[in-house]
Amino acid sequence: MNPALEKVAKYLSLEIDRNFDNRAVVGGLQRMLEPWQVEARSTGVPDNVIEAVVARLRDYPTLSIASRKEALEGLVRRLQSEFPDLPLPDLSSPGTKEVTETVAEVQQETDAEQHSATTSADVSQVDSEKQSSMPSASSTSTKTVEAEEKPKDDRNAGPQGPPAALNAPLTSIAGIGPKSAKTLKKLNLATLGDLLWHLPRRYDDYSKLKTINQLFYGDEVTVIGTVEEVNTRTVRSGKMKLVDAVISDGTGSLRVTWFNQPWIADRLKPDRPIVLSGKIDQYLGHLTMNSPEWELLERKQLHTNRIVPIYPLTAGVSSKWLRRVIHSVVTRLAPRIPDPLPASIRESADLIPLSQALQQIHFPDDWDHLHQAQHRIAFDEMFMLQLGVLRQKQAWERLSCPPLRVESEWIERFQSSLPYELTPSQMRALKEIRSDLEAAHPMNRLLQGDVGSGKTIVAAAAVGIAAKCDTQSAILAPTSILAEQHYQTLREILPSAAGIPEDRIAILLGATSEADKEEIRKNLESGVIQVIVGTHALLEGPIKFSNLSLAVIDEQHRFGVEQRAILRDKGDNPNLLVMTATPIPRSLALTVYGDLDLTVIDEMPKGRMPVETKVFRPQERTRAHHFISKQVEQGHQAFIIFPLVEDSEKIEAKAAVKEYESLSNEIFPQFRVGLLHGRMRPDEKDEIMSQFRDGKIDILVSTSVVEVGIDIPNATVMLIEGANRFGLAQLHQFRGRVGRGDQPSYCLLIPDSDDAADNERLAAMESTTDGFKLAEYDLDQRGPGEFLGTRQSGFTDLHTAQITDVKLIEKARREAQAVFAADPTLSQPEHSRIAAEMQRFWGLEKGEMS
Q: CATH code at 631?
């Protein structure tokens, strides 16, 4: 018996036994057609039988259960009549039991509906579309293929049909079994909803239809023509098979080649109309197409003659297969997705309905529809983000705390006792903080300013106000070095400016002795200590305050939500002032930090000289070292920063430990060179920094540990190796560590290579000392990661919205504010879906964002 016939008989028997669920073959019956045709022809199965099998099974997934039953029974009878000995199922036995479609919410379709490709129930296979009326082959040279009817732009449109079963597993789609589902799991796809929200990563525009005589080299186009001839040939000593075809449209001919896809030759019959999309190439003076996307003309185009979505893939998943799966799910479910936004918001924000946006973002009719869809999806993300931020701000404002008030005379005495005059920007910041402290709800303010702009003095004034009101303050710093620096500053300022005795100001570090810690804990609980400066040691359980009213957190991006919450819990809704030297672009101030009131110190104290910045090529390193020698010989000090502590096999970058040996022994043997990095013990780091501050070290070799908290007025040079590995905001922080005295200062940047993109980015450091301009540039080039720190909640859920799109952010914030003004608890019926979507977006157990 013929093996190909036996195989198809086995498939038919199993499919009938399975009640026509299209799972007799992994991927569906139609999946076996192409390899089966090759085997059938090679084993002598008559062409008319092959064509009968193909005709019955090609569109099998699109059929209703009744039509599938009819198709298979007809094929069985045909084969029985031609091959009586073939082991086929007995159709005289009682009929198969009634079954429903695999996905419970997909209603049975009538045969008439099958002629629309958009009603496909099984979406997983290459040949799943039914014929639709298209131009005849004779007219394809001059006619374009009509696009499917565009959806109406009905802003008030509601979902069509019952709610979509978004949580149904992928295996509920006929043709996707456990193996395919496991493969799709690699793409984090487990449910129909996951497929619906598996958005394209880009699009190929094959909507430009041209006749062959209009083609030019390099065009990315769609061509409709007729197959003239098809040949298969073997190259590379039999290792590769090529399919060559000649396509004609009446205006000319085009040679098309596919590599290692011999089955295509069996599909491309002469005189069959075909649609090709791809890039026009050239070979021996003739225009060609290599491995284009293609479809038979009578089918609905998903892969050609349109803007084609390109999805993220994984091994074992092809673009065409996934595109068809998603097309069916989108066609089925998108029209039935409830829109979380009421019509009033859609109209106010000029948004298309969500169901329309989901259809158009996957399979757009044109670029205008795609942009509308992308804008709608992006708006939803930013809107939910803004609602969460505003909810957090609202929750903070509902808390209560005792007001902290001082007379204006106290403020005047504080300012007059300082050894220098506050800048107008510092005065404004102090006024805003004072106003916050006088309120009956706690302050929640972000104080932003460049390194050296005077944030600590403003914070010291807030600490003084708290002390004047007989309450306590805590200042949390990320490193012992920075904590020590703040401690010294406060001891110098507060006794004379705020009347706080030195013995009521304390410091608590990890290296503090246990006996001293116990004394500090006792004095904090009793209220003897009014001001405590410390590192993470302040967050330890045994630390209790008598009356904590102000928490100041420096370099706030170094601390997580939980750490800030721990510190605040040590008081009764204390005021919160967080500080950062990282300039924050406006878009981030409206999103990432939108729950905080923002104060910007945008002026530098008088006498501060701008730092001259220069980018050196790697070959110019000797010049940079010579410049450092000159500066040190004049009595100044220098930093040399490296991106790594030790050498790495994976990263080709200079490392501090290894380079320290070379710098101290070979390049600067006449100077005192020190080494500082994050793997050293806290007491070792403190000792090195003390030596550098006291002038006992001339050149400090370090990693990014010096980014914050080091104030060395005598340091005039900052050399940064591997500068391309740092963000501009971080480089700006490094640069702020020099130029703190009255001498001209310099920042030298050396990238790892002569890469043009890196050098262009670093050139921005040469052109400006404006931290905000650099931050905007960094945000555009590198994304928000460097600015987020630990404030990740919600921001990693953005897939379409751009954190740099200020116009979108402002629109979403405006609409979110209007919703909150009208319905702060989102309890009104028209906001119920917003509340549910907000819960999903932020998660049930997400912590606070401030």
A: 3.40.50.300
